[in-house]
Amino acid sequence: MSEPPIIKILTEEFAGKRLDVVMAELFPDYSRSRLKIWIEQGQVLVNGEKAKPKTKMSGDEELQLTVQTIESETSCVAEDIPLNIVHQDESIIVVNKPVGMVVHPAAGHYSGTLQNALLYFDESLAAIPRAGIVHRIDKDTSGLMVVARNLSAHKYLVHQIQKHEVVREYQAVIHGVLTSGGTVDQPIGRHPRDRIKMAVRENGREAVTHYRLLERFREHSHIKVQLETGRTHQIRVHMSHMRHPIVGDPVYAGRQRVPAGAQADLLAFLQSFKRQALHAWRLSFVHPENGDDVLYEAPLPEDMLQLIGLLQADVQAHSLG
Question: Which of 119, 153, 181, 252 has the fewest Cβ atoms within 10 angstroms?
C-alpha cells in the first residue's frame, strides 16, 4: 500500500550532504532506519533514478519519496483479540501483555500477536511501523509495553529507548539464594552452536542488567531487575550466566531445582511451571507529547504470585520445623 509520491526540490544548503542525511532533515517524522530502508528499496528517487544512502547531493536535485509499508507489515491483519490497556491517550498506548502472546508476526507466529490485536483496537496504527510497537518482550514474559500512536511519538520513543531513557523494570523468581543485588555487564550474541539461544560472548553486543534482591527463600530468590540495554533474552541470559537462571525458563534454566524436604504442593507447582517467571512490572519515561515524567505499573500475574506464596510458605514451614 502506498501514497502518492512526495516531491522535494533541493537547494544549495544541502550540497555535499549524504542522501540519508538529507532525507532525515526533510522528513523528520520518519526514523532514520525507516528512511534508509526506503532508499535501499528504491522508494526514494534522485532525479528519477535510484541512489544509495551515502550518495552525496549537489543541492539542485529533485527527490521523490514513495511512502510504502514494508512487506512484512502489510501481511499483518487486524484481529479481534482482547487487550489489557493500562493507559491510552492521543500519543501512546500502554499495554499489559499476557503470557503466551507473541509481540509481532514472525516465523511460526503469523496471527494472534500483539500487533494483530493493536491493528483491530486502532485501525489508524496501520500507518505506523509495526503498528507503533517500539520494543518487545518475549512470548512467555508478561508485562508492560508502550506503543506509539503517531509517527512523531514513534520516532521520539525509539530515540529515547536508544538513549536508554525509557526505564524498564522487571520482577523475576530465580534459582539460588542471593545475598545482595548487583550488575551484570556482559556482551550478548547468538549462541555459537544453538541458533535458538543467545549467550554471553566476547564479540557480542553490549548488555547491562541491574538486579536487586527483594526476598530470599530456601533455594530461590525474588528479584527486581532493571535493563540498561535491551538485547534479545537479556535478563534470561544474564541470570543463567550467573548460575541463577529464572524459574521455569524452558531454554536457559535446565533441570528444575527444588528445596530439600519441600511440601508436595510446592513440588508440583514448580514441576508444572513451564514459562520463565519474569514480568515487566514497571515502565517509566518522558511523555512524547507533553514532556511529563510518567510511570505505569502492572501487578504480578497470578502464577507468579502463587509461586512466591508457596516459596514463602515453604520457608515458614521449615523455620517452624
Answer: 181
